[in-house]
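Here is one chain, start to finish.
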Amino acid sequence: MTDYLLIIAAYLLGSVSSAIIVCRLMGLPDPRTEGSNNPGATNVLRIGGKKAAAITLLGDSLKGFVPVLIANLMGVSPLILAGVALAAFLGHLYPLFFGFKGGKGVATALGMQFGLSWQIGGAVALIWLIMAKVVRISSLSALVSMGLAPLIVYLLWPAPELIIMQVIVTIMLFWRHRSNIRNLISGEEATLRDDAAASANKGDKS
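Its structure:
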């Protein structure tokens, strides 16, 4: 019973949309109807600035990190651990409290990976940072780092349940980024410089 409660709790926590809550508390436009219409940290950066984006990023990451870390510390089986991680991720993508219309899942997935182990999360984060430094495109950095995440899990914690979970997360994350992929192919995807400029235009003083 405890295992099922962990999974349910992970989904409910994942369903708490940091972007929407932060924007409401800070008097910003609804991220679902402004900018890219995505309730995530990058869009909050565009419409509300660095401070709002940082809080959103932290909230989305913790939604994945906290339930997986708790399950990990409780010593549950890899199957249940995978279930908790997937539930938190699905909660972000399809939040119960916000009409099942959520974000794209990068920050929550990264938080979940850190919950599994700091080595897994650190490796994925490092790849994102290197890519962001080189290509200066947030979505491409996320796609590359999360595309390599199943291999990283395989190398660092080769439990079949966790590898399969990460493959599912990666596939769903790519699906949620299909518009970004089309923009990348056409050369129209926004760069980090574009996002920073949009943030500055909103009068961000942070």
